[in-house]
Amino acid sequence: MDTKPPYAIAIHGGAGTILKENMTEEKESAYLAALDTALSIGETVLKNGGSALDAVEKTISYMEDCPLFNSGRGAVFTHDGKNELDASIMDGSNQMAGAVGGVSTVRHPIVLARAVMEKSPHVLLSGRGAEQFAEENGLEIVDPSWFYTEDRWNSLQKVLEKENQNGKTGDASPVINSDHKFGTVGCVALDSQGNLAAGTSTGGMTNKRWNRFGDSPVIGAGTYASNDACAVSCTGHGEYFIRYSVAHDLWARVNYLGESLETAADYIINQKLKEKGGEGGLIAVDKNGNIAMPFNSAGMYRAYSKPGEREINIYKE
Amino acid sequence: MDTKPPYAIAIHGGAGTILKENMTEEKESAYLAALDTALSIGETVLKNGGSALDAVEKTISYMEDCPLFNSGRGAVFTHDGKNELDASIMDGSNQMAGAVGGVSTVRHPIVLARAVMEKSPHVLLSGRGAEQFAEENGLEIVDPSWFYTEDRWNSLQKVLEKENQNGKTGDASPVINSDHKFGTVGCVALDSQGNLAAGTSTGGMTNKRWNRFGDSPVIGAGTYASNDACAVSCTGHGEYFIRYSVAHDLWARVNYLGESLETAADYIINQKLKEKGGEGGLIAVDKNGNIAMPFNSAGMYRAYSKPGEREINIYKE
């Protein structure tokens, strides 16, 4: 029988074709350090008796500012050369939730998602309206150029070049995610009061069009939390995570089938989704402080911590 | 043991405080006739061996054109006096899905949702981008004034007046859905091939702000379909349906708990949601052609049909 720890926290920084042979030592160190700092921020909140919700919001806020991750500053570019950000957060204690899709002027989409949850009668706001809500509520507004990084801009140029080449041979279909890297950040936490929370934030997919939203702003797909079972944050090919309501499905398998968090999470990611071609992973913590972080891609930036245990990893073990 | 019928179809036209004493005979007749026509459209597709997906799309397209329902023409107005339409569709045979949120120029949002599913690599498109996708794919574009109806415009004016009154007494909170009418249209169907499909379309809530999306464009919340269990379309206070992933939850209870469609649907609407204050209802059909249409509000515009059975109703029986 497990003893429930006073806190537990897990984070991810995206999944995909992340291979050691393609990584410089310098870059690897930078990622490990950023994951370490992010995790520490959440741990500090929780060790001081803070709420899971605060831990999730503060941890993700840091990751949004870190240009290594595809969220906030460092987000990927759309086909039109913009950064359109999505985020969501859910409070497992009352199943309140907030989400935003397609914002380009709000420094911390995760803070905006929480404001939507706490200060509006709505769950999901989008585009310019979501930005107006941020302004009305005094959130930090930035020039869209704040989100620009040279790396992500170059990634878009490469994809556009490929599309252009394809176009010459008559293939007009958009090139989406040709590098199989699904950048997203997420955090799940259990606090000393027994409350669970989950949050997710992303820039989506390089070269996305038509104001596309992935699973990150979709409660039940990219994010879910309920004190009766678990808190979940996903990363991967968002369309699959929406079609299979992955975050809610994990909750349902734990709650209805009585599966352990690890069994249920492993089944969804490594069987159900894998068979369908849905690449990605998730992080989850259950009400007893158990943590699962399965992924079916080559790697996933990830870390977790509870009293006496602390790990930071990138590749498959 | 039930025998599986060659087809089954159910539709809804929204739930809420729909009381016989507030209805004129003329209006009641108009609603009953519109539901009858809508149902007939789907029945004809299915009786002729057409697909559940076609039945859902064609039935909802008719309802979108009918000014009685809050979807397409006849949609409610936002705080800024616009019509912003949401819709989604899901094919139970392969769990492909398409959805759009916040479009103002596309005559049939449900047709656009299907185009997103079939002609884009994405599931959920929003706002201006979704409209551009519609244009690129040759869908019918209309002037935003196409969606205007005097009735809905007057409803907005009443709500704005109330907000203005509240403002004078210091209450600045938005007045959302003060009349407890949740207009939405939806259709679920089982075809002779054993395929299930579900679709939902709406104008959202009168006086909504900040480009709010409800549950209708959220796969897993307002719409879900999978041949292994059931197809679902919801109507009601969308924020609750998102927070509890209602459509996917019904699928999960049938699939994981082995509950009958009726037991599961009744539990979710009349216990789980009711206890939380989540007003509304849903329609669902399972793989064996069983139909459930529970609602916890005073009324729900609804109808269903399968060989030998056909009913159209508005109020609680």
Give an overview in words:
Two copies of one chain form a homodimer. Chain A is α+β, with helices and mostly antiparallel strands and 317 residues long. Chain A has a single domain, classed as Glutamine Phosphoribosylpyrophosphate, subunit 1, domain 1 (4-Layer Sandwich). Chain A is 35% helix and 25% strand. Chain A has eight helices and 14 strands. In chain A, a hairpin with a 2-residue loop joins strand 13 and strand 14 (309-315). In chain A, helix 7 (246-257) packs across helix 8. The interface between A and B is large, with 47 and 47 residues. Strand 8 (212-213) of chain A pairs antiparallel with strand 4 of chain B.
List keywords for this structure.
4-stranded antiparallel sheet; 8 helices; homodimer; 35% helix; 14 strands; globular; Glutamine Phosphoribosylpyrophosphate, subunit 1, domain 1
